Amino acid sequence: KAGVTQTPRYLIKTRGQQVTLSCSPISGHRSVSWYQQTPGQGLQFLFEYFSETQRNKGNFPGRFSGRQFSNSRSEMNVSTLELGDSALYLCASSFRGGEAKNIQYFGAGTRLSVL
Amino acid sequence: SQQGEEDPQALSIQEGENATMNCSYKTSINNLQWYRQNSGRGLVHLILIRSNEREKHSGRLRVTLDTSKKSSSLLITASRAADTASYFCATDGEGTSYGKLTFGQGTILTVHP
After folding, report:
1. Closest listed residue to residue A58, CA positions, set A81, A79, A35
2. Contact B85, B44 (CB under 8 A)
3. B91: closest CA among B9, B26, B29?
4. For residue range B73-84, what is the model confidence (pLDDT) as tens digits?
5. Cα(B112)–Cα(A95) distance, rounded to whole angstroms?
C-alpha cells in the first residue's frame, strides 16, 4: 500500500505570492490533517478534512485554507505569503475508526521557503 | 499552542543504553501517542496508549501514562544508532474530533555507535 504522498517536496516563493500544496492519502483513508512545523513553534495543527468537509481548524489566519476532493486527496493554500510562513508543511491521513483511532500516517512534507 | 512540554529537550547516549523521554500535557485526553521524526521528514507512529491504560509495550518501547499527573514517558531499551531521531508525544483531547493531534516540543535523541 502506498504511503502518504506530498507534492512538491520543496518550494521557494516570495512574499505576497500564494502557494498550493498537495496531499494524497493512503488508499482507504478519508481523513486528512495538515500541520505546520517550525523551529520556534513546533508542530501546529492547521485543519482536518473528512468527507470533503473541514471538521477541525487550528489557530491560523484565514490566509491558510484547504479543501478535500471526492477521492480524499487534499490541497492546502496559503495566500499573501509572509516570511513567517516558511516551514515544513506536513500532511497526515488516518482511517478514522476502530482500533486505529486517530493514528496518523504522515507524508514526507513540503519544505516552503518564503524570501 | 503546544499541549505540553517534553523533557529533556536533547538526549545523547551510547548504543546499548536505555533512553527515557518524558512528556507533560495540559488537558484531559482520549489517547496519547508517540511519534518519531528523522531529520525534518515525516513523522512515524510508534505507539498509542489509551487514557485508561497505565503501561504499554511494543518491542523495545515501553510507554507509561499517569493521567493524574498529566504525564507520559517513553523508554527505548538497548538503543541503536538507528534510533537517532526526534521523538514527539501527541494527544487528542477529550471531546476533540478525530484528526487533530496536539504535539509536544519533542526530544532530540542522539545515539552514538
Report:
1. A35
2. no
3. B29
4. 999 999 999 999
5. 37
